[in-house]
Amino acid sequence: MAPKKAAAQEEAAPVEESEDEPEEPEIVKKCLRSGGQLYYGDCKVGYKERKGRFIRHGFGRQVNSAVSPQGPGPNGSPSFETVVLSIYEGNWEEDMPCGHGNYKWSDGSSYEGNVAEGQMHGHGKFVWPDGSVYEGAWHQGLLHGQGRFESRFDGGRYMQGRFFRNCFQKQDGRYVDVLQHLRNNELKQVLEGNPLAEAAEAASATMSMSVLKKKGSWAKWSDGGSGISVVRCFSGKRDEGTRGGLKSLSDAVAKVLSENATPLILASASHGSSAVKAFVDSGCAQDPLSQLVSIRLAAVEKRRQRDWKCLFRMALQSSLLGGCAFALVFEDDEDAASLKDDVLAVRRDSNHSWMQKLQASWINRQPSLEGIPTLPEGWRLSSFFDDSAMPAELLCPVIFNARGKSRRFLPDQVAAVTAPVEVPMAPTEGTEEPATLAEGDGESADGAFDAAAAEAEQAAAASRELAKKAAAQMPPGTVCGPSGHTFELSPEEAEGADDSAVLGMPLTHQLRPVLIATARIPDGLDDAQVRKFVKERFSRHMPVHRLAVLVLDNED
User: Fold this and answer.
1) Of 268, 231, 226, 269, which Cα lies nearest the Cα of 252?
2) Burial 400-421 (b: 16+ CB within 10 A, else e)
3) Would you state the pLDDT for residue 441?
4) What's the confidence (pLDDT) of residue 450?
5) Is residue 517 classed as helix, strand or coil in its secondary structure?
6) Is 146 exposed, middle or buried (0-12, 13-18, 19+ CB in 10 A)?
7) CA distance 509 to 522
């Protein structure tokens, strides 16, 4: 009997499992969420040091997103809008994009081609937001090798041949910096519109709509002013619907900004309030004294060689932190001309309270109905453009926001926790997450937590709930940028609203530029006459091709 018992014990002895990864790992479909990253696709189970984790391996799609402050919500708690920063769909290998894939970024650019270790490498096609295209060889994220670059604004000319680290080698041996070439054209487009507008307009008569759509996301707003949109509004807040066929001013501003244009607000002669008062009453600005800038005062400060830049810097910072609009106001009514420099006699001090007094003096006044004949040359926006105070790109919200230009205007402690600027194909920090972060998967290894572990798990659970809020009701499709999906924090969640780790989502601060003129426009103008009025009065002072005109009319 004894030998049989020994045999039974031998059979019951556990077999040690190998920790080595099999040559052909099992591939499973998983949905993984970690902070602002949402991945769905093929995964394999990790071994050894990666045990308990799912490794992205095979074909999958990852959406990288962040949340942008929107100011107080309906219940008074902080509200946010989900912003899609980038989307990658393609092959993965060992948790990195590798193979063939498609990438899209929130500035409107895209890439399709080969990828290696998270970078564009091999043959691929890159399309910039303005419609310029490069197709050819890439090396570790750089244009390198044989390729062809076509710029939308070079009149049909192109660069074809050998590229070396983002530069094109001409026949005489000199190199042209392609990115600097694009930068110059991009600024020209923001400030002047399409330099080939006449040729483009002539060609558009023979082009089909399908061809026009391939020009890029800026095509609608870069035809020299002929396509300026005109929207009739009433002085209403967000989500108030329509009255008498008119949209609320707040809804119209949000709609225009979502289309990558800049609103210009004008009030008709018979409207009950001025454009500035209607803008403030609409709730677009939470703190008008900090978020509105008078171009008249800025011009006086600049002429007197004072610190005019602080007017723009402080307003930009307040608007970005509050999730509100940043408004540039042209005081072009006759009463403003009589103010001149008298308000500048306010004594200055180190805490900038003098600025608050200056702001209150012109924001609260009632402008006259008549406008000055012509705007002063010193009011031209181009004279204030400065990378440290008012970058030219702020009139193109998509470029300003997607390129992370808001960081330079944020306090250091806020900029440190904002979402990093999306670099093509560069993996973000912390892409390897435990399987417990995947919805419905995984448990603790030992099943017991000490006090610190329990607190960490509670914070992680709160982060997952907020991540679900940010992703809930997201519109279908592959569109990058602001999603239009907003959500409000609960009172408990609002306590940690300033901490990106508690929020569970990276923060991004979106600029919402608005232009306002105080002088009234005549009653009874149709849309074509409004366009003509705007072009004749403002074309020298602001890039009218970037505008959508919001006219405040009476509801009847």
Assistant:
1) 231
2) bbbbbbbbebbeeebeeebbee
3) 37
4) 46
5) strand
6) exposed
7) 37
